[in-house]
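Dear colleague,

Thank you for sharing your sequence with our group. We've completed the structure prediction you requested, and as agreed, I am returning the results in plain text so they can be pasted directly into your records. Please verify that the sequence below matches your submission; if there's any discrepancy, let me know and we will rerun it promptly.
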Amino acid sequence: MADLTGLWFEITARTPPDDVEAVSDVMRAVSPGGISVEEPVDILGPDKGFRVRPGEAVLVRAYLPASELGAVLTDRLRTAMQAFPAVELIAKPIYEQDWSVSWREFFGVVETGGRVVIVPTWIEHEAKPGQVVVSLDPGRAFGTGHHETTRLCLHALDRLVKPGIDMLDVGTGSGVLAIAAVKLGARHVDAIDIDPIATEVAQANCDANGVAEAVSLRAGTLDDSHEGRYPLIVSNISTDANIGLAPVFGEVAAPGATLVLSGILSPDADRVCEAMAAHGFERAGFDEERDWCVIELKARGHAV
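Please find the predicted C-alpha cells below.
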C-alpha cells in the first residue's frame, strides 16, 4: 500500500558543460532517487530532432526527501559542491505519491555513543548486552539519529534519565527522544510538536515500541498555560525557537530541574545561555558534534 503523499526537494545544479560529469557524480552519491541531466537544446521541428546549444549551462537534478535524512544529504551535497564555485544550486519542493521505498537504503542502524541504538523498522538487528533499542520509522518527521542534534540529545538522556522521572519533550518529531527516555527508565513523557504530521508519526512509533501508555503526545505549541512541572526537559528545535520559549521553560521547570537544549549551532550557545539565565537557568554542561551543540542547564532552586 502506498504511503501518504511525501514531500521531496528537487535540487537543480546549473552547471558549466566542463563540470557536468564531476557534478553528476557528486549528486548521484547523495540522491536516493537518482539524477537527471538536461542539456540546453533547440527543437528543430517534426522529424528533425534537436540541437544542443554549446557553452550553455546544463541542468543536473537530484531528488532528496524532506526529512532529517534529506537534511543530512543536502548538507553533504552543499559541502561537496564548494569545489565547483561556478555551479548554482536551486531547490524547490515536489510531492511524490509513493514516499516509502528508495531512500530507506540510506537509513541504517544508528549507534549514539551510549546505550541507545536506533534501528529502522525494516532492518533486523540483534541487540548487544545493555543496548536500549528504539525501533523507528521516521516517515516525514525529524529524528532518525543521523543528525548531530538528535545524537547529542540521546547521549545526554542516557546520562540524565533516572528511573521514575517525568520528562517534557519539546519538538518531539519522530518521537525518538520520548521513546528512548521511557526505555531508559522514565515514568512518563509529555511530548509536543508544532507539526500534526509529526505527532502522528510519533504515535505510530510509540505504539511500535510498546511505550504508548507512558507517552502523551500533543500537536501544538508550548505556552505558559501548560500545567506540568518537570524535573527533566529536552527541547531539540532551533536557536531562536528555544530562546523564544525561555520564559515558558522557566514556568514548567521544577525546582532544580535539568533543561537540555539542542538544534543549536555552537556559535549561538552563549546567546542561548544568556536568554535562559534571565529565567532562572544556569549553564551546567555542553557538548558538540561538528557545528552543532547541546546545552545542559540547571534551574535555580533546591535539587529534586
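Summary note from our side: The longest strand covers residues 253-265.

Kind regards,
the structure core
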